[in-house]
Amino acid sequence: MPRVRFVARIVALAAVVLVGVGACALDPQGDGSGAVAPAPVGVTERASGASATPAPARTTGPATVRPSRTATPKPSRTATPKPSATPRPTGASVAYTGCPQGDQQRGVEAYLARLGGFGTVTVDGKQSAADCAAIKRFQRRYGISPAEGRAGPTTYDVARRLATTDVRRCRAGSGLTFCVDLTRQTVWAMRGSTVVVKPTVTRTGMAGYATPAGTYSVGGRNLREWSNPYEVWLPYWQQFNGGIGFHETTTYLHNGAIGSHGCVNLLHADAVRLWELGRIGTRVVVLGRRPGT
């Protein structure tokens, strides 16, 4: 009986040596014996036999294989097709394709026509060369990026706010007055009943830092003011309420997800223009409330 068990162990050991261990039993981190684990196979949607490396065929001895002579095929002459002429459109007008058309085309056209000053615009909801040029000028003027002439939501929003700003709501004095409409996020300047700077875009205090409405006056000015709490330079600074003032924006003005800490952010050209006009004592009227604050 002991002899039978010994023979069985010998047979089992031989089987392990000849067959090997199953792949699913391998530890990818190694088995502690110092053997290197196999490299992981790249994940694919389906395993394909074509990607597997074929095992070398077993031969009983070295064999010399003479290469067969294969005639090299001569390349056939292929006639090069001549490009066909593109037919020119006749009769009906062809839609203008030199400028992308946005989903707010008609609305932007209507507001630009109302604002004026950006070129000829046809309010028909169809992009044209003239529409494209006018929209690009508008986008460049108000810092909308990219200025490619596409009537998208930002262009529509800016045009709507500017076109619907009622300058008569500002209680301007006989002298110069800076007016801020928090509701439409616009700024303009007046002398009495005369508009000296047309409405332009702004971005005021975000939620928790809402710019307060009221009547103030410019109390301090500096071409480049350093903000101690936020550690940033504020170009063309004109302070009118505590630590709140006008200044050039330090970020993309049309990012509505953010806002200032109460200040009235302006595009560069607008900040420069108000700086040139403003003086200590210039009247400031802030009205309305920024949506979401």
UniProtKB/TrEMBL annotation:
- The superkingdom of the source organism is Bacteria
Could you tell me the keywords of this UniProt record? Cell shape, Cell wall biogenesis/degradation, Peptidoglycan synthesis, Signal, Transferase
One Pfam entry for this protein is: YkuD
Q: Give the pathway.
A: Cell wall biogenesis; peptidoglycan biosynthesis
Annotated region Disordered: the residues are 46-99
**UniProt feature, compositional bias: Low complexity:** 46-64
SUPFAM superfamilies recorded: L,D-transpeptidase catalytic domain-like (SSF141523), PGBD-like (SSF47090)
By its UniProt entry, which InterPro entries does this protein fall under? LD-transpeptidase, LD_TPept_cat_dom, Peptidoglycan-bd-like, PGBD-like_sf, PGBDSf, Transpep_catalytic_dom
All residue ranges annotated as the L,D-TPase catalytic domain in the record: 176-287
Signal sequence annotation? 1-25
- Where, by residue number, is the active site? 247 (proton donor/acceptor), 263 (nucleophile)
Q: Where is the composition biased (Polar residues)?
A: 67-83
- List the PANTHER family: EXPORTED PROTEIN, L,D-TRANSPEPTIDASE
- What name does UniProt use for this protein? L,D-TPase catalytic domain-containing protein
